[in-house]
Design a protein that fits this description.
- The chain has about 200 residues and is of the alpha+beta class.
- It folds into two domains: about 20-110, no CATH class; about 120-190, no CATH class.
- It has helices at about 25-30, 120, 130-140, 155-190, and strands spanning about 5-10, 10, 25, 40-45, 50-55, 60-65, 70-80, 85-90, 95, 100-105, 105-110.
- The strands form three sheets. It has a six-stranded antiparallel β-sheet. A three-stranded antiparallel β-sheet has the order 3-10-11.
- The chain binds zinc ion (ZN).
């Protein structure tokens, strides 16, 4: 069978197209952290190790990643006065969103980034992924399955037990990936996106 993680029509549906595993800029988290205050400069570190420098000069949030620089417009709207909520504007479509996700070094909305929720594909067959992400966070590892784990020697005895549970669960995920691939392929064929 052709791989379900290969080319499907206009894009490539691969595990890195799963929104849940991408770095995410959430407007409410930024707001709580004080990153949307005029002239605020915030260093923003993700569990994956990605480091951003955020500078807010209304109406723009400047997102710097090494030498790469992106300008994200921020607007405020009032769904129910006096409550005021911020929006981050996607650099591609201009729509106001509550979150943008990193794709190829650029933060974009879910639609423009062609991202999809993990639960729509993977959790149908591998409900243990949520549990895996939870366990990985407990030992301060990246929640994405199969990403590197901290050295065993750096962990406390209770964390070592969790380390073992993570390895066992990941083996189970590998065993069930065949089902995910079949599911993605069937959906792609049904929608006419994958040539038969
Ligand atoms: Zn967009």
């Amino acid at each position: 069978m052709p791989s379900a993680f290969g080319t499907i029509g206009w894009g490539t549906y691969a595990p890195d197209r799963v929104l849940d595993f991408r770095a995410r800029l959430d407007v409410f988290v930024l707001l709580r952290a004080g990153a949307l205050v005029e002239n605020a400069i915030t260093n923003w570190r993700f569990e994956s190790g990605l480091l951003l420098r955020l500078a807010f000069h209304a109406p723009n949030l400047i997102v710097e990643q090494g030498s790469q620089r992106q300008q994200v417009a921020v607007s405020w709207y009032s769904p129910c006065p006096p409550i005021v909520r911020p929006h981050l504007h996607c650099p591609t479509c201009g729509q106001g969103r509550y979150a943008l996700h990193e794709v190829g070094g650029i933060f974009t909305c879910r639609i423009c980034g062609e991202l999809d929720y993990a639960c729509r594909h993977i959790n149908r067959h591998t409900p243990q992924l949520n549990q895996l992400a939870r366990l990985r966070r407990k030992i301060r590892a990246d929640p994405a399955p199969f990403s590197p784990l901290p050295p065993l020697s750096s962990l406390r005895p209770t964390q070592r037990k969790i380390f073992g549970q993570i390895l066992a669960l990941e083996q189970g995920v590998v065993a069930s990936m065949g089902g995910v691939a079949d599911d993605l392929e069937a959906r792609a064929k049904k929608s006419g996106m994958l040539r038969r």
